[in-house]
Amino acid sequence: xxxxxxxxxxxxxxxxxxxxxxxxxxxxxxxxxxxxxxxxxxxxxxxxxxxxxxxxxxxxxxxxxxxxxxxxxxxxxxxxxxxxxxxxxxxxxxxxxxxxxxxxxxxxxxxxxxxxxxxxxxxxxxxxxxxxxxxxxxxxxxxxxxxxxxxxxxxxxxxxxxxxxxxxxxxxxxxxxxxxxxxxxxxxxxxxxxxxxxxxxxxxxxxxxxxxxxxxxxxxxxxxxxxxxxxxxxxxxxxxxxxxxxxxxxxxxxxxxxxxxxxxxxxxxxxxxxxxxxxxxxxxxxxxxxxxxxxxxxxxxxxxxxxxxxxxxxxxxxxxxxxxxxxxxxxx
Length: 332
Description:
This protein is α/β, with parallel strands linked by helices.
């Protein structure tokens, strides 16, 4: 059966709005709900702050230019402590609202390359500029994810966990397009074997923790083959922008019955919202282009919004979740 889920972020900036977002996710996406992220609450709730809250043995603080590592565990800044506290509060809310849940559940974390392109070293400039620093970051993320998965499982022992590793910056990292701190230059490109090695550490940690690792990249040139080769069991992509060169990689996953989370519903309300039939037909045309009978891939396919919903209005975000669920039902 084709099911519905979402990428992760939702609109809102208060604890009450977080509780409402969680109720919406659990109510509208009953077959594969996710732990919502509300970046509107500030940097400690952004995708970077959220991932730093998971890190093991590395601390960070918030500078005017953004997040910066401060060294080994023992000296976290106040914002890093807030990020960890906020994640714990969100998990408390999940434990309360989803008590007794026994289906699949998705949590999200920013991947090592997007973090390396976003977070600064203790003395400035991105971690991406330092081979040793980015390797240490991947190790800390992998170890932290083991603890994070164990924590979620302790709270919801009946849930089958899916960990979505977000890598929106990976194509830019591979292409040498990430700007330096000055903005005058670009960091050197990372070769694919090294990129794969750090991703493999993270995906392996998720797998060994008993969860299913899925990689999310909504760029047109999402390197699906690299992500899967490094250990991702499935991918999450935006159908509207996905380059035809990636179609074969998607087809290979569907043929194996591996999870493909297909972004279909607009993440921002368009002037003329598409109807359920138009979105369903778009997916059917895509499957036909790949040579699949829709009935043969319903168990692998997951319908999602095109990207996170943080930029949408609360009313539209709820409507998008409902439409995502409806399109999945039509495909089933």
